[in-house]
Structures are given as structure tokens and as C-alpha cells.
Specification:
By secondary structure, this protein is of the alpha+beta class. About 25% of the residues lie in helices and about 30% in strands. The protein has a domain of about 190 residues: FAD/NAD(P)-binding domain (3-Layer(bba) Sandwich). Strands 4, 5, 6, 13, 14, 15, 16, 17, 18 and 19 form a ten-stranded mixed beta sheet that branches. It has a six-stranded mixed beta sheet with strand order 8-2-1-12-21-20, covered by helices on one side. Strand 10 and strand 11 form a beta hairpin. The structure holds flavin-adenine dinucleotide (FAD).
Length: about 375
């Protein structure tokens, strides 16, 4: 492509920030418009799990590619992302769960994942502190976690260093059209034009494309997190448990971070969530049942992030049907943080080259049937 191209990215979450950086590092002109501040919504509230295990088969190629990118991401972004590659462990208690776990390990191996079953005393050795009823676990050594706010801000800062313009407090009110071509955006009192517009506006993407008669059939949900007081270092892996809404990890400073898709309330105007006491109790009880060590500490802080959940639980990434100059990347359904390096790369390729290096067909905007809606809340965010 000889001629320089210009791109506007709407949304400064981890998805938009990564896209902006991947475009800027290729020397193309990019402006990122963020209504609030970088990492203000889902990306700042996230559990930060960086896993391949348990992915929908459609997401597995992206997740495997992303884990390769995470290997070098701190160097690429010149930042400490608090990235730990100490494994992801899903634990099983009953014979039925163990049997289902073995089958799932086999299926995931066939999808190209490095995953193993750890059973009996080997499990307690691998992850001391688990409740004794857990007799087996499926383990992916290369999975882990990172700090989501640091990562999002580091994408944005790296984009700026490569020439991107990042504007916080800049809300896009509508898209500008010339026939069926999207030619720019309008913020309060200002029109901005570009060759391409990318919508990475998380739970607000649906509203932005509604005037174009495109329905993104996802729903905004509040997902809740808990942070405990710091404890001595013990847990290395990210832990989930079959049939229980749980994601558990211990952070660098010793605090445990607990999630798993527990619901909270949301306010779409402020972009903020409100904690439900019932969810705090349910989440802490679930986590303590799997990892009793938690009973020695208490919850220090809790919060709710707003996430767009799609009807089939996988994201919506691709060209907007019926229009040129418009790409959508939204609806990451509780697990978009881990994919962010790859999402940014593939969307930048789609925008600048017309085709991504890994197929995004499974995530097409128009894959849903009329009337599809979200049937279930995501069982386990992270
Ligand atoms: C509690 C919780 C735990 C999670 N745990 C994990 C996990 O362990 N692992 C994992 O991989 N994923 C996890 N996720 C999911 C992951 O965090 C999200 O998929 C990801 O952050 C989505 O990023 P985003 O950029 O699409 O959305 P957001 O971070 O929501 O960013 C969208 C941005 O667009 C801005 N915006 C909206 N409208 C406009 C407009 N009109 N003009 C300008 N800007 C606009 C918003 O202000 C917002 O900052 C979790 C999510 C939550 C909420």
C-alpha cells in the first residue's frame, strides 16, 4: 500500500488502544477518541486473566496466537505489565467432573493447545492450598495473568510514542456518512474525517451503529470483582473450578483477585457499576470453598465492570455489513483482555491491508439470525 491511510478509533479500552498502537507502529495516521479516560470501563475493571484454556473453538486460534504475543509484549510496549505466565488450572471434585475434564482436555489438545490433566498428589504439589475435595485439574502451563489497567494504558502510551493522537474526554456522537461510505465522526462541536473508522466502544458499540440500521445483538452486563487484603505469596496459577463461577489469582502485592462472572448493576450514562452485596458474599464463599486459605483474609475492595456479551459468547470483529470504511471490534463477552494483542494486530491488518493474517470469519458482524439475543450470562468471566 503506497499511500498513507488515516484511521479514527472510537474507544480507549484495551481493544481500541491495541488497535491504535498496531496502526501507529506501521507509520499510519491514527486518532483514538475516548469518551472517558483510557481503561475507564471493562478494561480497567477486568480480572486480567490471560488464558487459552476453556476457549470456544472459534477463539482458540486467536488465543494461541495471543499467548505467543504476550511472551514479548512487555518489551514491545516498554512497560511492566505485571505479566505472570504461571499457568491456568481448572479443578474438579466429583468423578463426573473429572471425566468431563479429561474429555475437554482431549478436545482442546486437538485444537492445538498444550494442556494436561494433573491428578491426585501431583495437584496438591502443583497448587498448595486447594481444598482436599479437588482431586484433579486441567492445566495449561503457558496461561497466566497481567494487570489490565497497566496493559491498556501501555498500549495507548506506546501508540502515542509511535505518533498516534489520543484524546480522552472526547465522545463520538455519531458517524459521518457519504452514501454507504463512513467518512468520519462527529464529537461535541467537531467533525473529524478519516479513510477508516474503527468502533471499539465496548458496550456502547451497539448504539453507535444503530443509525446505520445495523443491530449488534449483544447486551451490556455488570461483572463483579473482589480484591482481598494482601497475604503471603502462595498461589501461582489462575484457578477456576468446574461448575462454579470462579476465577482466582494472587497479585504481585499479595492480594487475591476474585471474579468469575458474578453479576452487578450498571449505569450506562456514567459507565460505572454498582456492587451487589449478594454477589460479594456468593463470590467470596465460592472462592473460599475452593481455596480455604482465603478465610484468613477479607475483602478489601469490590467493583463492577460493564462488558458487552454477545449471544454466542464470542466477539464481533469485522467489516460493518453494507458499508465501507467501517470496522467493528466489540462484544468480547468477558474474555477479550487476553486476546488484545492479537485483536489489535488482526484489526489493523483488516483496516490497512483489507485482510487479516488469521481469519476473522467466525466473528462476522452478520453471523446472527434476526431475533438472536443473549440467552445466558457468561458463566465465568476471565
Ligand atoms: C469484571 C471483568 C472481568 C474480566 N476478566 C477478564 C479476564 O480475566 N480475562 C480476559 O481476557 N477478559 C476479561 N474480561 C473481559 C475484558 O476485560 C474485556 O473483554 C475487554 O476489556 C473489552 O475491552 P474493550 O476495549 O472492548 O471495552 P472497554 O474497556 O469497555 O472500552 C470501550 C471504551 O469505549 C469508550 N466509549 C464508549 N462509547 C464511546 C463513544 N461514543 N465515543 C468515545 N468513546 C466511547 C468507553 O468509555 C470505554 O472506555 C473481564 C471483564 C470484566 C468487566
Amino acid at each position: 500500500m503506497g499511500q498513507h491511510q488515516s484511521v479514527i478509533v472510537i474507544g480507549g479500552g484495551v481493544v481500541g488502544s491495541s488497535i491504535a498502537w498496531h496502526i501507529a507502529r506501521r507509520g499510519e495516521s491514527v486518532t483514538l477518541l475516548e469518551a472517558r479516560s483510557i481503561a475507564a470501563v471493562a478494561s480497567g475493571a477486568s480480572a486480567g486473566g490471560v488464558r487459552q484454556q476453556g476457549r470456544d473453538p472459534r477463539e482458540m486460534p486467536l488465543a494461541i496466537a495471543a499467548i505467543e504475543r504476550w511472551r514479548t509484549l512487555e518489551d514491545e510496549l516498554e512497560a511492566d505489565l505485571h505479566y505472570y505466565r504461571n499457568g491456568h488450572l481448572v479443578v474438579y471434585a466429583t468423578a463426573d467432573e473429572v471425566e468431563a475434564g479429561r474429555k475437554s482436555v482431549e478436545t482442546q489438545r486437538q485444537l492445538g493447545l498444550e494442556i494436561e490433566m494433573v491428578e491426585g498428589p501431583a495437584l496438591a504439589e502443583l497448587a498448595p492450598g486447594l481444598a482436599p475435595e479437588f482431586v484433579a485439574g486441567s492445566y495449561t502451563l503457558n496461561d497466566g495473568h497481567a494487570d489490565p489497567t497497566r496493559t491498556t494504558q501501555s498500549f495507548a502510551r506506546a501508540a502515542e510514542r509511535s505518533g498516534a493522537v489520543i484524546r480522552e474526554g472526547s465522545e463520538v456522537e455519531r458517524l459521518l456518512l457519504d452514501g454507504d461510505r463512513v467518512i468520519g465522526v462527529e464529537t461535541k462541536g467537531e467533525k473529524l474525517y478519516a479513510d477508516h473508522v474503527v468502533i471499539a466502544a465496548g458496550a456502547w458499540a451497539r448504539e453507535l451503529v444503530r443509525p446505520l440500521s445495523i443491530d449488534l445483538p449483544f447486551e451490556a452486563h455488570g461483572l463483579q470483582m473482589l480484591l482481598t487484603r494482601p497475604m503471603p505469596a502462595l498461589l501461582k496459577q489462575v484457578v477456576g473450578a468446574a461448575g462454579r463461577p470462579l476465577s482466582l489469582k494472587q497479585l504481585r502485592e499479595g492480594n487475591y483477585l476474585i471474579g468469575g462472572g458474578w453479576p452487578g448493576d450498571i449505569d450506562m450514562v456514567s459507565g460505572k457499576g454498582r456492587v451487589r452485596e449478594q454477589s460479594v458474599q456468593g463470590s467470596f464463599e465460592t472462592a473460599s470453598g475452593v481455596f480455604p486459605e482465603l478465610r484468613k483474609t477479607e475483602v478489601e475492595r469490590s467493583w463492577v465492570g460493564i462488558e458487552a456479551i454477545s449471544p454466542d459468547g464470542v466477539p464481533i470483529i469485522g467489516n460493518a455489513p453494507g458499508y465501507t470504511g467501517l470496522v467493528i471490534a466489540a462484544g468480547f463477552s468477558g474474555h477479550g483482555f487476553a486476546l488484545s494483542p492479537t485483536t489489535g494486530q488482526l484489526v489493523s491488518e483488516l483496516v490497512l491491508d483489507g485482510a487479516p493474517s488469521i481469519s476473522l470469519d467466525a466473528f462476522a458482524v452478520d453471523r446472527f439470525d434476526a431475533g438472536d439475543s443473549v440467552q445466558r450470562i457468561v458463566p465465568s468471566a476471565g
